[in-house]
Specification:
single chain, 257 residues, Rossmann fold, 6-stranded mixed sheet, 7 helices, 34% helix, 21% strand, disordered N terminus
Length: 257
């Protein structure tokens, strides 16, 4: 294959660094000279100890933070938030409590400029069906469980057809059964929608199950490892090689503390 035929990386993070300038911090960077390439349809899981800069990196990619260096999407430098990069947070309360499920999903569509109400409703219903919540379209957030709220947040993100979905520990507060169910749904939706996902987690098992790539960050925002996940999807703890990977990442994280 020639160079011209090769696919250009979807996301390029080039030598970014980030310091927080206040009296409570030292001169040590939260992220120091980090570079990263994410290809189209990658599912990159990022592991690392608390305070290593995982969320800050995600916020820089979303253009929620200032930083040194540059970030490119489709070869173009980005410097402000856009619908090409949508964030799904851990917080269950990322929905408007006074709006129904359907209207929560429709709201960013309206702000994006889709003026036709029926078209907004059609798009919202399409993605609510994908996350299994079409029957709850007229419910309010307080009537939903935590897992259902996260499903709505995912539908809201996907409805905008982002190039990259940025997920900051979105399942961390869910019970084990709900978490397992949504993990499986996310993998299915990812494949159907041909999504590119960057997913932060503290859970090694979750990273191995979901990611086709796994990156480990250490203190100071350094990349300790960025590797292809050799296990086929859907990976489970019963898969051959799962335990060895789990042990490898456990040791790496212990060293990064």
């Amino acid at each position: 294959m020639t160079t011209d035929d090769q696919k250009r990386p979807l996301l390029e993070v080039r030598h970014i660094s980030k310091h927080y300038d206040n009296q409570l911090t030292t001169d040590a960077p939260i992220i120091g000279d980090l570079s990263l390439v994410v290809n189209d349809q990658d599912f990159l899981c990022i592991l690392g100890p608390s305070g290593c800069g995982k969320t800050t990196l995600l916020r820089c990619i979303a253009s929620f933070e200032n930083y040194q260096g540059e970030i490119l999407v489709d070869g173009q430098v980005v410097s402000k938030p856009g619908s090409d990069r949508i964030v799904v947070f851990q917080d269950f309360n990322q929905l408007f409590p006074w709006k129904t499920v359907a209207r929560n999903v429709q709201d960013p569509l309206k702000r994006r400029g889709i003026k036709d109400k029926q078209e907004r409703e059609r798009i919202a219903d399409t993605y609510l069906e994908k996350v299994g919540l079409l029957d709850y379209r007229d419910y309010y957030p307080h009537q939903l469980s935590g897992g259902m709220k996260q499903r709505v947040a995912i539908a809201k993100a996907l409805a905008l057809h982002p190039r990259i979905v940025l997920m900051d520990e979105p399942f961390a507060s869910l019970d084990a059964m709900t978490r397992k169910s949504i993990q499986a749904e996310l993998l299915q939706i990812k494949e159907k929608e041909e999504m590119t996902v960057i997913f932060i987690t503290h859970n090694i098992q979750e990273a191995i199950m979901l990611g086709n790539r796994i990156m480990v960050m250490g203190r100071g925002g350094n990349v300790l490892e960025d590797m292809e996940n050799p296990l086929p999807k859907p990976a489970t703890p019963a898969c051959e090689g799962f335990s060895a990977l789990w042990d490898h990442f456990t040791q790496l994280l212990d060293q990064s503390q």
